[in-house]
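Hey, resending since the last one bounced:
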Amino acid sequence: LILASLSGSLLAFLYWNKHPARIFPGNSGTYLIGAVLASAVLIGTIKLVGFIATMPYFINFLIRLGNKFKWTVGYTEDGLIKTRGVEALWSFWVGKGCKESTVFIKAMIFQAIFGALSIAYALQVRTCL
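The structure tokens again:
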């Protein structure tokens, strides 16, 4: 029930947050989403499923930790995003230059893959019981 409520609200939020974003969640929004996910995982005793679903965020944290949380993003003259190296998970898709909308779509696909993996694992475990 908690995750269904979160999913519904995030789907509505996605309408306004897709490229070009008109609103942003900020720290308070991301902390709230993380807290709801963590509490649902702990209450629902679905720790491994929750870990699989949040793996992109762990990967991003480890990449950012390796770079000491430096942030050097810029734009080229033709409006493409450019980074000086791999500074976050999304910078794998930026490469030498990429449109923001392309980065958004690739990041959504990457997160959807991990979401689907977590659901598939949960269904597999349920059928094995």
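The chain has a mean pLDDT of 82.

Sorry for the duplicate.
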